[in-house]
Amino acid sequence: MAPDWTPTPALRRALIVVLVLCVGAVVTGRVDLAVLAAPFVLGTATALGSRPRGRPTVTLVVERSRLTEGERLTAHVAIDAIDHAAPLDLVVVRREPEAWWAGQQRTSVATSVRGRAELTFEGEALRWGRHTIAPVRALAFTCDALLEGQPVASEPVPVAVFPRSEPFEADETMPTAAGLVGVHRSRRYGDGGELAGIRQFAPGDRLRRIDWRASLRTRQLHVAQTFSDRDAELVLILDVLHEVALDGPSSRPWSGGHRDVGQSGGSASVTDTTVRAAAGITQHYAERGDRVRLLEYGGRNRALRAGTGRRHVLTVLEWLLAVSPGEGPHDPSDNFLRRHTLPHAALIVVLTPLVDRRSVALLARLARSGRSVVAVDTLPTGARPPRTSAWSDAAFGLWRLQRQNTVAQLLAHGVPVVRWSGAGSLDLVLRDITRMAAGRR
């Protein structure tokens, strides 16, 4: 086992100077050389007399281990000297730079410790996911920098950074619903909070529905007719077969309705847009009483049961942290609809970049089954493959034409494709789907 403290070059130089002066005094018989050596001997002996009995300890703690993209992350480093009577003259603390954590302070800090010292590192959490703050390492010097301690490190600290919910608000009603309890207006009449009109009283009408103003004016009993409030089930399918990014896998958090580019490694990728859009849509519908279910169309084909309320939103955010793009050993399109039973009354929103034929085939199968399907385009604007030859531009142009044909074919199958743009992205589409559902009934 290595010793706790080892000599520094300064101690070696002091010993060499003392040895040379003492040998010279003995050989030459000069007393002045011994007098010159005395301060070095006394100073070194006095400094080494306050040698610590053990290594210092380093502890890393964070104020919040669960936060959202764009929020401030504050980490505190506590340095404790084992022997409080022996101060540490210099302690150099260094932390490894994190790509997902943009700190404004330097990664290396030097300080002196007398008993206990605390340092603070602050920065902005840039990237959603489950991260780990690397151990903070400290190198201490004591005894007037004559002894150097062995490097000590803190324990790594896990941090969960939740995706920032994209601003989303859908004002349109859901096309279909499964129950008679909820906040979405139905196309059918029933008990609810939104007025549909006034009609004459009929047998079976409740007395509390009588509109006395209209009854007194017409001399006949009239009742207020309302639309029934119904809850709905929403199924979000996250297409993560492929990752597409403009200039890097990392991205800035959403800020003010646009994404910053170039300051932290790139713009939002397909996975970034998919995860943040899923978080926003879930928060909007689940907090209004609708049931939201998530499915992952990728390598692992994970699924999250349907739920509602604030607790379910937190569960969804935890589930989204594990989203990883890429293909697995099995084709996700094999028996996807058989493994996951999707109710016919549910609205299915597929977040997809439309770069894989299997995703397009899944949308077509869902539409042919009679379900209400909406495809949300998550491909970054301006994304294109690198130019590798003189034919790259022509090939990319053909691919764009093919993708436009695919979107037109999906629309012909009854699957509208809209680009994700935050608030109100699905209003027009939901309005059209609602009218189509009402026409089918």
Automatic annotation (TrEMBL):
Domain annotation DUF58: ranges: 198-241
Superkingdom, natural source: Bacteria
Region Disordered: start-end pairs: 249-269
PANTHER family: BLL2464 PROTEIN, POSSIBLE CONSERVED SECRETED PROTEIN
Name this protein carries in UniProt: Uncharacterized protein (DUF58 family)
Species, as recorded: Thermasporomyces composti
